[in-house]
Write a structure and sequence with these properties.
Length: 389
Amino acid sequence: MTISYFRTAQTLITGRDSISKIGEEAKKLGSKKAIIITDKVIRQTGLLSKVIFPLEEINLAVDIMDEVMPEPPFENLEQMMIQLEGKEYDLLIGVGGGSVLDATKVLSIMLTNQENVRDLVGIEKVQNAGISTILVPTTSGTGSEVTYNAIFTDVRDKVKKGIVSPYLLPKVAIVDPALTLTVPPSVTAATGMDALVHAVESYTAIRAGELTDGIALQAIKLISRSLRKAVYNGKDVKAREDMAMGSLLAGISLGNAGVGAVHALAYPLGGKFKVPHGVANSLLLPFVMKYNVVADLEKFAEVAKALGENIEGLSLREAANCTVYALTQLAQDIEIPSSLKDVGVTAEDIPNLAEEASKIDRLLNNNPRWLTVKEIEKIYEEAYKVDTK
Ligand SMILES: [Fe+2]
């Protein structure tokens, strides 16, 4: 057995209305001055009152900063730092989707490390632990509340860049499905597919292991049985609960086993074409899986079973291939764009996209099957040629 680490949030609180516990948690952390970090969309929904009320009950002074931009550029972080410096906050509370949570995680370490944020890009470049954080996801997808990486857009070279450090993990993550009830169908669909990709990729990753396999399979079961319901009836509380839990489990698995080629090929689409992360993953998922299946037939057959496919009487190869069918069908059912053409990519863009993706060794080295630049190009081509009628 190889040596492996398993890390997650120090405390995980789950369940409907679990946000009511945030005051007690802030008190346990000894906070005297906290700030909620969020974006303008979340602020307008009125969700923040559910976060602020329990904090007021313990008489905690709390400010709000709603400046996080979608898929945030580094400049966005630098601007927010100007507002945070010298204020002596001892607790940052991130309330929002993946962009908000990633920004909160990195602001906490920017406050305790002297380096420019761009110098923290890469694996374990962060020297000092950050200010305490409590992370509260309002979508079911990114798993950012339990991962120790954070992704930003470098607008100079139009690529996504990641900061990876255990110091990004929060003191507390509160995953309350009641906060996701008003998420619109298109966002539920894209973020839900992102979570499913986390589970499938981490389960079949090179770094997958005993600690993450069961977690990933349970995530696949919960997400595949409830994603359609959550998209088409957002008020279905049981479906939202499954999605919240599935996304959390997928995040725990992703945080420890990592993801692979779907994410590697999706990142250049986000950087250059501003395709939302979940949509980019969903577009590439069937084609990367088709390529990966032969690398681990047993595991892909297990994925098919967890996706609810009836694999009885099938050969291992047939069962494993069911994964590709089931994932394609699910993405179609929830009406996520299915061709690269739908998101503005032209055939001429493909060689450059492949070149960019081939540089993301961190993820490609974790994929169950090695990909050359030519093979990456072929996968983009397949995703481009899809008949969208
Ligand atoms: Fe993702």
